[in-house]
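Could you help me review a protein record that somebody else here produced? What it holds is a sequence and that sequence's fold in token form. I need someone to confirm that the token line plausibly describes how this chain folds. Take the sequence as given and treat only the tokens as open to question. This is what I was given:
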Amino acid sequence: MDADDFEMYPIAHNGRVYNIFTGEDMTFREVRAMLDWLDAQGAFTEDEVLGSGKIYSCPVEDVVFEVDVQGFEVIVYRRGPAH
């Protein structure tokens, strides 16, 4: 996926504002479930601007999203079937 394929979508969820960068089609339900899952994993920290450098495999319903978290920015690299 080229950098030109990504678009940024701001979303307010549970009192925070996130920027979702993706070239994938995602429903609001998937985005909210992904954010909840990432939050439960401790992916979001207010003090760490650059993020953990960890790629998360985020299971949501019947798919898995490969994402990177940098502060409150989430970059969705890939969408694939759940195993």
